[in-house]
Amino acid sequence: MSLVLFRIMIPVIIAVKVLDELGLVSYIAAAFRPLMGLLGLPGEMGLVWATAVVTNMYGGIVTFAAIAPGLGMSTAQITVVASLILIAHSMPVETTIARKTGVRLRFMIPFRLICAFVLGMLLNLIFSMGNLLQGPGRIMWNASGGDGGPAAWGLSQLKNLLTIFLIVLTLIVLMKVLDRLGITRFMNRLLAPVLTSMGIGTEASTVTILGMILGISYGGGLIIRDVRSGRISPRDVFFSMALMGLSHAIIEDSLLMMSLGASIFGVLLGRVLFSWLVIFLLVQAVGRMKDETFYRFLFRRPR
To answer: In sequence order, which residues have a C-beta less than 8 Å from that of residue 107 and are 6 or more positions away?
Structure first.
């Protein structure tokens, strides 16, 4: 897993360093500043989110670790940028999986980007109005090391990659332990009524829960299988993939964002509650939609 990640992350690390040495990060930050300002974030976080969207979460994390030190970000700000990354990342890969289940890209891409931004705005509003999590964020690693020359920078990045390797290893072990202890099965039973309350059919509940816990690649793969067998209705497939787009790998990814200094109340509780509300409203809206409109704009008609 780490080798696959490093093939993406190392070019990202080098690219960020080149941009920094050329003084281009400040220009990129200026371009993102109006958008990020709506979320209470420094403009540099626009580059972090854009990297996560195009590559994956780890690409965003590496960019964050290279840029965030020195910005003096609060826990609230780190939680907001973490929520952006959690909902909208790895878009080329994950939206391709969604497309194979039948969900149209013209819906899924803007849906995830807009929802990420809306959740970020809501969290920023809640944290600002309640004066919550305003203390300095604690990042597990610091990947700056730019003041001691190329050798010091390179050593800093190697330490950073080692840290990420250890985090990935810890998360894999943790997921195995949770599975052996039966906690994964307990969460399946716990989440089933939640999906029913959203309006997602029971036929799609099991694979949706697996996707929420294990990740969109795994859950999407199971849905592709069930779509071909005709076991799940097109609308339930649509709702299931929409939910997984907002909340997938909820344990692993949340822990990963918490290692950046994000709060569990935003990256886990806030994201799950937000996802429930969005999908509930989506089910109500699409439920009133005619089949012709549904298949034209949201879902490819089964063949």
So the answer is: 297, 298
Query: Measured in Å, how far apart are the chain's first and last C-alpha atoms?
Result: 35
Model confidence, pTM: 0.84
DSSP 143-195: ----TTHHHHHHHHHHHHHHHHHHHHHHHHHHHHHHHHTTHHHHHHHHHHHHH
227-276: per-residue pLDDT in tens?
A: 677 778 899 989 999 999 999 888 889 988 998 899 999 999 999 999 99
- In order of 37, 196, 210, the CA distances from 232 in angstroms are 42, 15, 15
CA-to-CA dists, residue 282 to 78, 165, 222, 242, angstroms: 28, 38, 22, 9
**Residue 3: what pLDDT?**
74
Q: From CA 54, how far away is CA 88, in angstroms rounded?
A: 9
What are the extents of the domains in the chain? 2-136+149-297
Tell me if 2 sits within 8 A of 164, measured CB to CB.
Answer: yes
